[in-house]
Design brief:
single chain; about 120 residues; alpha+beta; Alpha-Beta Plaits; 4-stranded antiparallel beta sheet; 5 helices; disordered C terminus; YCII; YCII-related domain-containing protein
Length: about 120
């Protein structure tokens, strides 16, 4: 499993102009299914992606990201081995595609559907 940390080097206006391309990049972490969780840092100085897959695939996806290719952000890829929660960590470390969802449910419970 990997943590990808994007650090912005440009104004938020410039970042926002590239955000759609960042999410829709056909070779990126989102379109290739590598991303499990993602969101902006607070304060908004960058973003974080939790990704699962082969290191070479994660590296290629990050290298193709419009934030990186245009130079508006740097990206650091950190690999880690999940150990908590214990009952979910074994599933995640074996590469199960449903592990992130199971871990989220174990930590936060089921998410209610909105009324209406």
């Amino acid at each position: 499993m990997f943590v990808i940390v994007f650090r912005y080097r440009a104004s938020l206006e410039t970042i926002d102009a590239l955000k759609d391309a960042h999410y829709s990049n056909p070779r990126g972490v989102f379109a290739t299914g590598l991303a499990r969780f993602a969101g902006p840092l607070e304060p908004r100085t960058g973003g974080l992606v939790l990704a699962e897959g082969e290191r070479s695939a994660v590296e290629a996806a990050v290298a193709s990201d419009p934030f990186v290719t245009s130079g508006v952000a740097t990206a650091e890829i950190l690999q880690f081995r999940p150990t908590w929660p214990p009952e979910q960590a074994a599933t995640v470390s074996t590469g199960s595609r449903n592990a992130a969802s199971a871990a989220t449910a174990a930590c936060h419970g089921p998410h209610p559907r909105p009324a209406g």
